[in-house]
Amino acid sequence: MKVAVFSAQRYDRFFLDEANRLRAAQGFELDYQEAALSAQTVALARGCDAVCVFVNDRLDAPVLEALAGAGVRAVLLRCAGFNNVDVAAAARLGLFVARVPAYSPEAVAEHAIALIMTLNRHTHRAYNRVREGNFALDGLLGMTLHGKSVGLIGTGKIGLATARILKGIGCRLLGADPFPSEEFKTLGDYVGLDELLARADIVSLHCPLTEDTRHMIDARALAAMKSGAMLVNTSRGALVDTQAVIAALKSRHLGSLAIDVYEQESSLFFRDRSDDIIDDDVFQRLMTFPNVLVTGHQGFFTAEALREIAAVTLDNLDAFATGRPCENILPPTR
Ligand SMILES: NC(=O)c1ccc[n+]([C@@H]2O[C@H](COP(=O)([O-])OP(=O)(O)OC[C@H]3O[C@@H](n4cnc5c(N)ncnc54)[C@H](O)[C@@H]3O)[C@@H](O)[C@H]2O)c1
């Protein structure tokens, strides 16, 4: 069985090759492509039985139709989120689509905490200062997190893992989720979204991107937040209206922003653009604020998570190849 692996980075090859070697059953033929999957690159999948894709590969109806036309029968997502897949079109075309629903929720949760800690105590600025012999503390003032209220929008696997760590720090936890979890109730309180926004010193997003959640943090939601609060997004960029966030930062209402994901990240993230002129003016405006911290979608990026992603991805393919039931097919069942 031949698989075109799109958006393949060096680390994807390493962990997929390792998982392929470890398979007791026969391995698969993995054809690595650096390019992201799009209408322009879909021809690279010709002759393959399956494609393996990541968060910024495009799987809209025209791309899926082209894949099916080229003989591809399975789509393997190396991620949990599937907002980039037209699931209805895939079903209509009879394509098998499977994802990796949970590889290491703790990896993403720990990154969300790293962002909160860094932005709050300015360790990224302190690191540079101290290396230049500047030991002044001006500008590095933070707040004690113990006793602060953190609002988690989405209390699924990653939201819960984040809640457990924050509980250990001594934060008060507020949650908003249409499907409440019994475990979260032992850690904090569920409240309505507006109450969460009004009470939280830090708001952290852990819900999926859907048509209902797109731009859920817009000008209205930002105005409802406590003045000076921190907004953290490690989920999907389009949950946040970036222009509205810039306006809230400029008016000094939003205290600080930490993001691992960005609405237009597909043209920027996962590659070295340091020699290029970046023509995304919205992103570049964000980079001018001293109280904004951006990482390039690295929440998932631990060796444990990549090993798990590779193993589950190949296991999903094995289920497709052998016709055995697969619990990771889309759409998911709760
Ligand atoms: N930064 C990264 O590297 C990275 C890695 C993995 C996942 N993610 C993102 O994290 C998201 C969460 O992942 P997960 O594994 O916790 O998913 P999950 O399915 O376990 O949890 C998502 C939760 O969000 C809730 N939800 C849905 N709509 C909501 C709404 N309108 N308001 C509040 N809550 C809502 C769901 O009920 C569910 O409990 C994924 O969808 C993905 O976009 C990011």
From TrEMBL:
Specify the D-isomer specific 2-hydroxyacid dehydrogenase NAD-binding domain's residue ranges.
Answer: 113-299
InterPro entries tied to this protein: D-isomer_2_OHA_DH_cat_dom, D-isomer_DH_CS, D-isomer_DH_NAD-bd, D-LDH-like, NAD(P)-bd_dom_sf
Q: Which UniProt keywords apply?
A: NAD, Oxidoreductase
List the Pfam families hit by this protein, alphabetically: 2-Hacid_dh, 2-Hacid_dh_C
- Please verify whether the record's keywords include Transferase: no
Domain D-isomer specific 2-hydroxyacid dehydrogenase catalytic, residue spans: 11-329
Record carries keyword NAD: yes
What family does this chain come from, according to its entry?
Answer: Belongs to the D-isomer specific 2-hydroxyacid dehydrogenase family.
Q: What is this protein called?
A: 2-hydroxyacid dehydrogenase
Organism encoding this protein: Pigmentiphaga soli
